[in-house]
Amino acid sequence: MDTAAVEVTDLVKRYGAVTAVAGLSFTAARGAVTALLGPNGAGKTSTIEICEGFRRADAGRVRVLGLDPLRDAHTLKPRVGVMPQSGGVPTGARAGEWLRLMAAFHANPVPPETLLERLGLSSAARTPFRRLSGGQQQRLSLAAAVIGRPELVFLDEPTAGLDPQARIAAWELVAELRAAGVGVVLTTHYMEEAERLSDHVVIIDHGRVVADGPTADLTRGGQELRFRAGAGLDVSDLAAALPAGCAVTEHPGGHYTVACAGPTELGPGLVATVTTWCAANAVMPEDLRVHRRTLEDVFLELTGRDLRD
Ligand SMILES: Nc1ncnc2c1ncn2[C@@H]1O[C@H](COP(=O)(O)OP(=O)(O)OP(=O)(O)O)[C@@H](O)[C@H]1O
Q: Which intervals of the chain form a coiled coil (predicted)?
């Protein structure tokens, strides 16, 4: 148990002229949930597929449970669960049959009926994969990934397109895997999901790691006071009323943020100063609240707001 669940060092993957992964390194621990986050095209799926042994790296080193995903594929297969982005289930396979087939590959599988029920698929057990709804297809491939009681699972966007009920069921399953000591490496575009589920976050952009750390550390600090009011307030006048190190911005119009750097506490005194300034200027600060930095804030700070190809 001394090796990490996943160790990626200086990984490079190219597709012709496109360098999808440009020297990427991270470690995912056992018994923990590691979220790989990044904008579209950042290189997450390429990285995960190399770890799964589905793709060959151009350079770098990857170890999964201490083994090489290509050379040791045979040993790793029963120990690692995989939920690919594309589902990975033949279109004609019936849900129940597919899970029973997957179960047959493992020494001590979770009973297929248990998983079908857990993931709300019992009534669809006889339905061919292509006739399942998108959300049902997602849930079936999630079930297939965990049926063998793996030591490690890779989940590529496990909750994309799921309704809120199914998303919660998937989250509960991930939390149980973690509690059972299973390592989970997942990708997601839902920052709230990553914040809620993961112990560790790796943010990737343009094939490189731009942030890597415990989820709680990445979002620590950075409290802001936010409120709405009419557009065009004199933000420099408000800033002048505040302690040194506090800045006021308006973005977008009518949305104001007060952020303080250094030792200034975002406490009741600061709130009072802001509301006193508002009262003196006949401004009603609506939705006044202290905003804690979320993973989405960190993500956007690091990767920007531009759309990706
Ligand atoms: N088989 C392929 N052939 C050519 N280019 C590819 C291939 N697979 C991925 N790419 C390119 O590599 C880059 C990284 O893609 P990848 O799917 O790894 O990113 P991603 O972070 O998973 O993106 P998304 O969030 O959109 O799923 C993109 O520019 C993509 O177009």
A: none
Residue of 150, 195, 192, 143 whose CA lies nearest to 170: 143
What does the alpha-carbon distance between residue 121 and residue 119 come to, in Å, rounded to a whole number?
Answer: 6
Q: Ligand 1 centroid to 132 CA: how many Å?
A: 26
Q: Write down the pTM of the prediction.
A: 0.87
Residue 14 C-alpha to ligand 1 middle, in angstroms? 10
Among 12, 18, 50, say which to mutate for ligand 1: greatest number of ligand atoms within 8 Å of CB. 18
Q: Which residues contact 51 (CB under 8 A, 6 or more apart)?
A: 6, 8, 62, 64, 69, 154, 185
Distance (Å, rounded) from C-alpha 298 to C-alpha 222? 10
Tokens of 305: 């707001």
Q: Say if ligand 1 is within 6 A of residue 22 CB.
A: no
More confident residue, 223 or 1: 223
Asked if residue 234 has pLDDT above 60, the reply is yes
Structure-block tokens of residue 191: 């920052």
Order of all β-strands in the sheet with 18-28: 18-28, 6-15, 59-64
Spacing, Cα 18 to ligand 1 middle (Å): 9
- ipTM exceeding cut-off 0.90 for this assembly: yes
